[in-house]
Specification:
By secondary structure, the chain is mainly α. Keywords: Cell membrane, Endoplasmic reticulum, Erythrocyte maturation, Glycoprotein, Membrane, Mitochondrion, Phosphoprotein, Receptor, Transmembrane, Transmembrane helix, Transport. Belongs to the major facilitator superfamily. Feline leukemia virus subgroup C receptor (TC 2.A.1.28.1) family.
Length: 467
């Protein structure tokens, strides 16, 4: 990814993609200094100093925390969709849209938000994300009445807008704060928070909101659920204000040192977008990534409907199956991140994981209706390990294919593709399930995963710059 390219660096220079000065005032103490290096410049004989700060771990875990809170809200309605349909007296599609609004909001807002990330940096983006996330939770607290469905839609919209500021950050945050041999692992941790939020979103709502017939009692349980998420989001927002820092005073890698030397007026967001759109292997990755993650979004949104169809009354186990999918995926993400840091085999690893996602989807599809929940837990876990584990692979492969373009811009295009396919697949699979059942719906997704596998294989025919 270019971290080994020697150049003349000024460690205190302003970031080319941030208008503000470094927010880390004062020099590091001995405890903060983990690594310090100087690499001579072939042109001028000057040296670039890099340093890793312990605070980088606090930054990435804080990001993961508000990403967790936001991802939890994405799925908290869908996993108890039958209960929400009864409480708000709406149809299944209305509840599905409470999840799909996350995907719909992302598409028009990603480009201005990515521009903001490039121009104003990580701290401004983090503050806006956590503020919107917190606002969404409190709006939903006020919506816990059967006649206030539109209020809960408004709260979910605020939360979905926060997601736009979140999804593109992991790779950018990893490259700004972490060393060259840590970026894939750090990116995986950033994605891990989002996955953990989805896992908690699968697990907690079915426990907090039992399927009772008394509307007053149901409203009480829903209100408790909303209050808990609002309290957590508020604490995280306060921590972001106090702790979250734009960047380390001294860059962590040679690539970041080089980036800080680029004058701001030499960077054009529009030109960067156009270069990415002309990058053939990257555009193939955008398509294949969208197909894979779009399938994951559809499976997650419709999981309650699929499980309840074959196992009536098992809302809590539907949540546990969702939890299994995501926890297995978190393990897959961490393993893939560590593997990439060690081997740099981006192309081969991406193809293998994609192919195994297809196989996992087929096994899940043909075993869902066997009547044994323990089988569903196993097959769903296998599907999650590879399908969710693919998420950080896509981010890091994109950075490898597009260096030195902004990580936020490449991630934004990947996520935009995922949201578009997520909406298409969720609506289409929902209608297929209603008409022909869950097997047909899952085979529908498997066909597109097969197409994505072929496209990923095509990317291997293009040369990729290796570190």
């Amino acid at each position: 990814m270019g971290d080994d390219t020697p150049t003349s660096h000024d460690p205190s220079a302003q970031d080319a993609k941030s208008d503000g000065p470094p927010l880390g005032a004062g020099g590091p103490d001995a405890g903060d200094q983990i690594e310090c290096s100087s690499i001579p410049n072939g042109d001028s004989g000057s040296a670039a100093t890099t340093r890793l700060y312990k605070k980088r771990w606090a930054i990435v875990f804080l990001f993961s925390s508000y990403s967790l809170s936001n991802a939890y809200q994405w799925i908290q309605y869908g996993i108890i969709s039958n209960i929400m349909m009864k409480f708000y007296n709406v149809d299944a599609m209305a509840v599905d849209w409470l999840s799909m609004v996350y995907m719909l909001t992302y598409i028009p807002f990603i480009f201005p938000v990515t521009w903001l990330l490039d121009k104003k940096g990580l701290r401004v983006t983090a503050l806006l994300a956590s503020a919107l996330n917190c606002a969404g939770t409190w709006i939903k607290v006020a919506s816990a009445q059967p006649d206030l469905f539109l209020v809960t839609v408004l709260g979910q919209f605020a939360s979905s807008l926060a997601e736009v500021f979140i999804l593109g950050m992991p790779s950018r945050l990893a490259s700004v704060w972490f060393g060259a041999d840590e970026v894939s692992t750090a990116c995986s941790i950033g994605v891990l928070g989002n996955q953990m939020g989805i896992a908690i979103g699968f697990l907690i709502p079915p426990i907090l909101v039992p399927n009772v017939d008394d509307m007053n009692e149901l409203a009480y349980h829903i209100r408790i659920m909303f209050y808990i998420s609002a309290g957590v989001a508020s604490v995280i927002f306060i921590l972001v204000i106090i702790v979250f820092q734009e960047r380390p005073e001294i860059p962590p890698s040679q690539a970041q040192a080089q980036a800080r030397n680029i004058p701001p007026d030499e960077y054009s967001y529009t030109a960067s977008i156009m270069r990415l759109l002309r990058n053939k292997p990257f555009m193939l990755l955008v398509l294949s990534y969208g197909l894979n993650v779009g399938c994951f979004y559809a499976v997650s949104t419709l999981l309650n409907r699929m499980i309840i169809e074959h196992y009536p009354g098992e809302e809590v186990n539907a949540g546990r199956i969702g939890l299994t999918i995501v926890v297995a995926g978190m393990v897959g993400s961490l393993i893939c991140g560590i593997w990439l840091d060690k081997t740099k085999t981006y192309k081969q690893t991406t193809l293998v994981v994609y192919l195994l996602s297809l196989i996992g989807m087929l096994v899940y599809a043909f075993t869902l209706n066997l009547g044994h929940l323990w089988v569903v837990f196993i097959t769903a876990g296998g599907l999650g390990f590879f399908m969710t584990g693919y998420l950080p692979l896509g981010f890091e492969f994109a950075v490898e294919l597009t260096y030195p373009e902004s990580e936020g811009t490449s991630s934004g295009l990947l996520n935009c593709s995922a949201q578009i396919f997520g909406i298409i697949f969720t609506i289409s699979q929902g209608k297929i399930i209603d008409k022909w059942g869950t097997l047909a719906g899952n085979i529908f997704l498997s066909i597109f995963l097969l197409i994505g596998t072929v496209i990923t294989g095509k990317i291997l025919t293009f040369p990729v710059k290796q570190e």
